[in-house]
Amino acid sequence: MSDFLAAQDSAGHEHAQPRSDQNRSLWGDVRYELMRNPVFWVSSVLVLVILSMAFAPQLWAETSPTARGACRLENARVEPSAAHPFGYTNAGCDMWSSLVYGTGKSVIVAILVTIGTVIVGVTLGTVAGYVGGFADTVISRVTDIFFGLPFILGALVFLAIFPDRNVWTLTAVLTMFGWTSLTRVMRGSVISTKQKDYVDAARALGATNFFIIRKHILANSIAPVIVLATIGLGAYISAEATLTFLGVGYQRPTVSWGLLVAEGQNLALAGFWHLLVLPCAFIVVTVLSFILLGDALRDALDPRAR
Amino acid sequence: MGRYVARRLVQFIPVILGTLFLLHVLSVLTIQIVGDPVRALFGENAPPEAILEQLRANYNLDDDCLEQTGNPCVRLFVDRLAQYASGDFGINFRGRSVAELFVERFPVTVRLTVIALVFETVVGIFLGVMAGLRKDKLVDNFVRFSTVLLIAFPVFVFGTLAQLFIGLELGLPLRDSERAPEWLGQMLTVTYNPEFPWLSLMLPGLVLGAFSLAAIARLTRTSLIENLRSDYVRTARAKGLTSSRTVGVHTLRNSLIPVVTYIGIDIGLLLGGALVTEGIFNIPGVGQLVFLAIQANDTPVILGVVTILTVVFLVANLLVDILYAALDPRIRYE
Amino acid sequence: MSADMTETEQVTEDTGDDVVLEVRDVKKHFPLTRGIVFKRTVGHVQAVDGVTLQLERGETLGVVGESGCGKSTFGRLLMGLERPTAGSIKLLGEEMAGLDARGLRRMRRNIQIVLQDPYSSLDPRMTVGDIVGEPYDVHTDVVPKQDRRKAVQDLLDVVGLNPEHINRYPHQFSGGQRQRIGIARALALRPKILVCDEPVSALDVSVQAQVVNLLERLQDELGLSYVFIAHDLSVVRHISDRIAVMYLGKVVEIGDEMEIYEHPTHPYTQALLSAVPVPDPRLRGHRDHIVLEGDVPSPANPPSGCRFRTRCWKAEDVCAKEEPQLVVRGPSGHLSACHFAEERDVIHAIDIPTSAADDDGSGDPSPGSVAPGPTA
Amino acid sequence: MRIKTHFRVTAVAAAFALGLTACGGGGGTTDDPGGNPSGEPTGEPGGSYSADLTEPTFLAPASNCYESECSAVLKMVNDPLVSTDFETGELIFDGMAESIEPNDDQTVWTVTLKEGLMFHNGEPVDSDAFLRAWNYSQNPKNAQATAGFMARIEGAGKGPEMSGLKAVDDQTFEVTLSGPFSQFGQQMSYAPAFAPIAQECIDDIKACNESPIGTGPYQMDGKWMHDQGITVTKWADYQGELPANADTIEFKMFTAPTAAYRDYQNGGVDVLNVAPEIYLEAKGELADAILEEPTASLTYLGFPTKEAPYDNEQLRQAISLSIDRELIIEKVLNGLADASTDIVTPPIPGSRDDACEFCTYDPQRAKDLLEESGVDPSSFTLELYFNADSGHELWTEAAARQIQENLGIDYELKSTEWAQYLELLDGEEFTGPFRLGWSLDYPSPENYLRPIVGTGGDSNYTGYSNPEFDDLVVQGDEAATLEESFELYAQAGDIALEEMPIIPMWSGTTAIAASDSVGDVRYDVGDGEIAFGEITVSQ
Amino acid sequence: MSEILTETERRSNKSPLSGVSFDGSAPLLEVEDLEVEFHTRDGIAHAVNNVSFTLREGETLGILGESGCGKSVTAQAIMGILDTPPAKVTGGQVRYRGVDLLQLEEKTRRHIRANKIAIIFQDALSSLNPVFTVGWQLGELYRKHAGASRAQAKSKAVELLDLVGIPGAPARINSFPHQFSGGMRQRVMIAMALALEPDIIIADEPTTALDVTVQAQVMTLLSDLQREMRLGLILITHDMGVVADVADKICVMYAGHAVERADVYEIYERPAHPYTKALLESIPRVDQKGQDLTVIKGLPPALVDPPPGCSFHPRCAFARDRCTTDEPPLYEVPGNRLSACHYWEEVLES
Q1: Alpha helix segments (H runs only) across A36-166
Q2: Do E79 and B232 touch (CB under 8 A)?
Q3: The CATH fold of domain D55-253
Q4: Given an 8 Å threshold on Cβ–Cβ distance, is B240 in contact with E112?
Q5: Which terminus of chain A is less hemmed in, N or C, by CB atoms within 10 Å?
């Protein structure tokens, strides 16, 4: 090889300069775009706060509402006061610590579901989009099957099987009915990436399909999936609340936002507004943060939006 | 076009069979894991075994495979398919024909869905267009924020608030008033009223459509902004057309293509997902029917109704696809 | 030369030791399917339909034709990106059609491609170094890992890019520079043959020459053979030694650059050449102006006999019945597939009156009558 | 008579409910059975009003009705055979029976019907109408929900006709029981199970279910509008004694109690069962306008008495003592219950208000007893079972927390679907205390004691068996007078309350709201229902 | 050319412009010192700087330049269809028959478009609305500008398609753009531009995406129509061959500047600007073999951050120090030409 290169007359031709002076990668561009966006900052700080509550609630509240003696029935529904700015829940637990410790149940499910749906969606979407033909037909039809089942109905039927509802069953059911849209998006994205010339170029180099998928297809197809997943994450938090409201989500003594909202729903109208408003505020702010984060990501990832 | 429809129809078959089988397996598992739904009809006071057995036989729940956890009971599935093929969707635990139940409730849900669809489409597209035309302006940010809020609020909270503040605070005085027209009061009702089958579904329809309204507004906005940048909009301007015509005729129709796709999906979500709204506003619709059936492990209803719903959903999707083809001639002549 | 000369004879005639690529009667038909449940084939798009040609060492073969004539598919066939429906492609004497995946991979070290679109042919998420070094990731035995960076930088230097820009991303480069990156990637495995599929058509005029010159220099320095596929006949003429003119999946005329441009015998070639504008206003109205009617027919349903007859002003009954063979016709001695092959100079000014009086005969748009011949 | 089946609880209310069970309970006021009117009595008959209801299961045959929703309607449409006075436990012949006479050993019962009774369609109500209905009901082929009520009759559940049922003449029939049973008369006051059936109805049960042919003061006005409503109007030819003040009653169906309340606020419903989930809100708005009446529903915790450590009597007593029933009633049940003092709930004749020694909250005594028992509180985790989504989460958790706090026993809450819960019950597979409820089929202490605590009782899931107890109950059954039998039942109850296979928690209270346009709203003791027929409408 | 508009239509069509007094003796179009800026994230891009030219009846002006040189922006500025924001016309005049279009109300301006000045875009497929039939899109002009009925509009559309040589026009008006071939689509675009018989047609790269044979068809059609209808034609292209064939005058643009303006024969024979010269030398010719291609080194500058002085200096073989500081004015070159090069004499001689 070196002799081949040595044969080159390196003198006599000038090096063309790249046109852009900013040495940014594509992701660098995205980062740059995000840094300039106040929506991104606000939403990502909120998301960090929420995540820390989910994974390390002890940082935010001293005692878990499930700890021995943490809740006293005498305090049930006590409204916010200076000493206890968040008041007490219907079960006489401190509302703030219930909300903080409830974050985990609500958010971790959403995160797990997001991870699950992304894994399933990316895998199946890639296979369907890249391999095409029979595999595509089968995957597309299976996607249709799950898609044809309305989400809430499907979840209700499914959750009826697992009376012991915990993070895992909720994750399973939400994943089961959440993967379809990501698969479809990924499939479409892979199909368009597959047609890109650089894929042809790699094939011309003799790259194997696996190599091409790994190096080119995945990286270039996943952006819309990421955006959709972020928005989905917010939606799953909301979904947990709805399922709990319908009586197929978490059950006491678990603490989750959905449970608190469902519980506060009627009590609020009886005058205990804090029981509804506070958990709702947590859900809304969280969902809002994730959706706005997804929006910011989408804007940053979409070159046309610039 | 005919070919396109035919192909879509043929694609239905495996999807419907698949959905049916999926449901079947889920319901079989429910019985196997959770327990005998017939026994659950009676409470702490267990009835004579002979009666339970008779009931199990009545509801086709006496197969041995229902005792073996994990057994998919394929034979039951085949029987059921044959039964469905003859138009028999079984009876529920109250001895009523599932098909009849569905027919009774379906019109209500359809009305609700139609109202929600019209509302979300009209308002959603309007908001989306407003936001898209004034990108990054106040209107845009307002629409953006409020739509996200609609998405973030769990529907049951939203429904209750609407019921209280619109239905009671606003609607009740109207209904009590001598001067206000009756239809106005009925539009702002708190519960379904069979005497006003459309008007009393207005408020629930709005609640039901709120989530999708947000989605449609956002979709329209994105799509409109994208299309406004397209060459043919430039052409329309070069043709000396007014800006309202440029947007209203040349951009909007193209922008609605993804919206129409979404609506196709949404029909399914609305049909099946209406149960929360139906519960809050006491609407005897299909969603509620299924929900109650799930609570009671009323397998024949779950299977029968969800099957019909799936078919309806698929048909709705087909119609949307045809509409899609009507909007986009490039699809039509494929 | 007799019209009944067989194809084999043509081939043997030209085959020499220096032939690096030998294509014989290669066809690529894409099936057209229809059906609701079961797909049935209702026809074929005859993208490439019996192309026979050779490429010699150090030679540049230009392939020209209108869009849809099959020239790009032909390029992909050469690369093994499409498997031919029939026919044989021999690369350095080895038949490609019979190769398994591994064999094909090995062969790909000898033939590489430069793609048309400098934007979509580079993965936007990879650095220039990764892109140019990708061949080494695929063929791991070519350059040891520790030497790869150096090899890539050398390659960048070869194509006239600053080796220090190895960590930059494609979007930071202009179209011309991207095309250089594409060329560097194609060169990494030291191929013998480069298939250039419209390598400059997406570039700005002022940059086009940079790339064309680079390709020429590389050919001289590395002894490459080029298959240069393009629709721009000016560029093709500039770079090619021999030219193949394709129409609807077939080669209609093939010969040395001088033969094709100065003495074209196939009406299609003549029409093509006459349509190329020349940047010299003095030639206005003084060139043979052939305006072809209509569009290229669908390759799924090509005309019988001579495929060009539907747009040809010379067409007679025989053209519909009998497909003209690609044989040597006329005095110039190159191959042409026309029953009525006849030389005609279409690129030069016809030396008649210098009066600038407007001609009004050029380009009568009414169908059937194509306005051949000089005007004024 | 509501609690028996959990249709409403499990199937409906759970979805939208977060409080307690949506239904009230059977039973009624212990005082003046003649009526305890609320609102402004108008006294004038006529007019129409509406009341909330959950979709019933079946309206015909009546023997398929085993829950409060259908019986509320059937109560209007059907006359009972006989009623029971809750004060004394004696039978009242305000229904179709002229008289009901047992033989000496309480095995053969003769029922004599009043003259001239007929169905809404004109068919006579004669012995055949009863034989037709009862035989249909007991036949397992027909799988009737109340078939169990026929179980004591000779030959029940064996074929199309029972050998123990014979018509003497058009007006008289004889019931032969397979054993002596002094409370059979009271049992027959559960109207739906013992209702007659018209020939037209049995010929086309499906049609009859949509529009039942009854014998009562009201008849169906049009068909059953499933999930929307049932309207009944006064039957002009009614000969019976039951009150029917309003001309029409519209029952409006609601699946969610909140929706029902919203419609009440909206003026769409006049008489409303205030469900627990909206009680606080309604109480805040309506205050004293809400009528609160005790019911006969018992909530209790059962122990797997054969499982260690729950086989220890003192531990069971200690657990019972460590639960602050009053606090839970106040904070969780919003006062809608009365702490238990007996296994038999207050409105039932023969119930006592001081029978349960270990039902009061006494943490110190609980600790002492635990120490005495020798059970190490840290050696096990108390697994507390309840059925999910039926509003039991909050109080079971509260109770478990109190046990933990007072006895130092850690807890784990176990909830399952109703069907699964029943399977666990049937298999006696619980590994810790479990929640259950009970309500009467007929107003007799026997109806509580035997099924729940008696050896092999239909609803005895504790594995508890005490021959002495069983013996006392049988003696009660055979006693010649009600008073004697109540005394014997009380002795049996004392044994159960000492050994505590179950710990009684509380009996329920129902809450009713009525609009200004209706009066004379009363909760009927015997029916466990609002006395719809008595309600008057201001015009 | 058939009489497309009736007299009544003509009158009604003129009415929105009745308040504007056009000077029939003034040149068809005069662009003077036109300046357009784009506000981008990276700063202000000066897309068009002091561009001036004149177009007379029956004349063809070629605007020649590479992508990004501002030629399309100039065209859209004349049409008044720039996206504002980000684009903004910051100076100059665009006079149609003596009336400065930039000063007119949007309503009036709208009527100038299509009625007086029409434009043909490069990519006909994306420039035609994919969801409407071609006939509908053509007819729309008559319906909206001339108040024609649907039937009238339809028959006019057929006439137009006939005029631009689309076979089977009566059937084809019901086709959608994607059902046409590239060349046919471009004919539709031309038909659309001609519909209201404008005085000026701006053709923005009308043949770039087309095959040479089709390009020849389209260019022939365009120049025939131009001649017949005495249109003022502005032909915007990067193809030096195409303009050489049809233009009367050439304006060469580079980095937003008009660097050279001259008669077509002069400019090809003896370019007076180094950029024009380099361009001519860098393109291969079909009628010559073996010519060496002169490479223009480097790349066109970014418009946000143009080099000081002459924007071409970093790539210019003639550049001196002065070029890096002084922006060259348009020097008058003998032969009624203009060149924005300090050393135009040197260029001319070389």
Answers
A1: 38-55, 95-103, 109-126, 133-148, 151-159
A2: no
A3: D-Maltodextrin-Binding Protein; domain 2 (3.40.190)
A4: yes
A5: C
